[in-house]
Automatic annotation (TrEMBL):
GO molecular function: initiator methionyl aminopeptidase activity; metal ion binding; metalloaminopeptidase activity
Cofactor info, note text: Binds 2 divalent metal cations per subunit. Has a high-affinity and a low affinity metal-binding site. The true nature of the physiological cofactor is under debate. The enzyme is active with cobalt, zinc, manganese or divalent iron ions. Most likely, methionine aminopeptidases function as mononuclear Fe(2+)-metalloproteases under physiological conditions, and the catalytically relevant metal-binding site has been assigned to the histidine-containing high-affinity site.
Lineage: Bacteria, Pseudomonadati, Pseudomonadota, Gammaproteobacteria, Alteromonadales
Positions of the Peptidase M24 domain: 12-243
Keywords carried by this UniProt record: Aminopeptidase, Hydrolase, Metal-binding, Protease
Gene: map
Similarity-based family: Belongs to the peptidase M24A family. Methionine aminopeptidase type 1 subfamily.
Name listed for the protein in its UniProt record: Methionine aminopeptidase
Any GO CC annotation of this UniProt entry: cytosol
EC primary class: hydrolase
One Pfam family, short name: Peptidase_M24
Function text: Removes the N-terminal methionine from nascent proteins. The N-terminal methionine is often cleaved when the second residue in the primary sequence is small and uncharged (Met-Ala-, Cys, Gly, Pro, Ser, Thr, or Val). Requires deformylation of the N(alpha)-formylated initiator methionine before it can be hydrolyzed.
Cofactor(s) required for function per UniProt: Co(2+); Zn(2+); Mn(2+); Fe(2+)
HAMAP family: MetAP_1
Species, as recorded: Alteromonas lipolytica
């Protein structure tokens, strides 16, 4: 099964949905601090998405068993799909917050790392290198790039820092569906895999572990953690392949366009 090429009308809807997802992360910034619970963050996001944006939080009731909350909050050794709970964030925590909204039938999906108080040097470095994996891959996105090139860029950069790439979870096509074809894995060989075409929309969302790459799922059937309990980080954007490059549909005001789009 191949990727869906979006029409001009669909692309406009993807831009709107992507902007809304980015707005949630920007709104959330001031709320992510020591003492707040991840469930309080969930409520803030849920109310904002539903009441201010008139949109739908895609995670709520998604999948089997149905995901019980409106956002994912993945703290420290949680790789992804962390369920908001009544545990307070504490000084030194790193937390990924993953937002997916549905607006007018189309999805915008994005996540970023927040650092609470003063993180360790190791945590800070892991968070930065993981964002660099995402940005280095985004910079190269254009028609003719292959899926294996995306994976290779992420894997090479993470492993150069002695980190590991999670293999069990990946990026994905996105549009009217939350998770569409193709799968975008964050490891691989250059020049392999399907070619990108104008009008494709997909996410890149590398998960990088400070220790080994292996993961396990907790008994709640959602929370994914590192097997060795090492720290893990993730950043995600929703992208559109344009005629000659890429448009980041979930770009935030706090992002440096030079770092996202241009060669360093
Ligand atoms: N937002 C996640 C992704 O990037 C998926 C979360 S599924 C959920 O694909 F059910 F856990 F919300
Ligand atoms: Co996501
Ligand atoms: Co995603």
């Amino acid at each position: 099964m191949a990727a869906i090429i979006k029409t001009a009308e669909e692309i406009e809807k993807m831009r709107v949905a992507g902007k809304l997802a980015a707005d949630v992360l920007m709104m959330l910034g001031e709320h992510v601090k020591k003492g707040v619970t991840t469930d309080e963050l969930n409520t803030i996001c849920h109310d904002y998405i539903v009441n201010v944006q008139n949109a739908i939080p895609a995670p709520l009731n998604y999948g089997h068993p149905p995901f019980p909350k409106s956002i994912c909050t993945s703290v420290n050794h949680v790789i992804c799909h962390g369920i908001p709970a009544d545990k307070k964030l504490k000084d030194g925590d790193i937390v990924n917050i993953d937002i997916t909204v549905i607006k007018d039938g189309y999805h915008g999906d994005t996540s970023k790392m927040f650092m609470v108080g003063k993180p360790s040097i190791l945590a800070e470095r892991l968070v930065r290198v993981t964002q660099e994996c995402l940005y280095k891959a985004i910079k190269e996105v254009k028609p003719g790039m292959r899926l294996g090139d995306i994976g290779h860029i992420c894997q090479t950069h993470a492993e150069a820092h002695n980190y590991s790439i999670v293999r069990e979870y990946c990026g994905h096509g996105i549009g009217a569906g939350f998770h569409e074809e193709p799968q975008i894995v964050h490891y691989g060989r250059p020049g392999t895999g399907d070619e990108l075409l104008p009008g494709m929309c997909f996410t890149i969302e590398p998960m990088v572990n400070a220790g080994k790459r292996y993961s396990k799922i907790l008994p709640d059937q959602w929370t994914v953690v590192t097997k060795d309990r090492s720290l893990s980080a993730q950043w995600e954007h929703t992208l559109l392949v344009t005629d000659d490059g890429v448009e980041v549909l979930t770009l935030r005001d706090d992002e440096d366009l030079e770092r996202v789009y241009h060669h360093s």
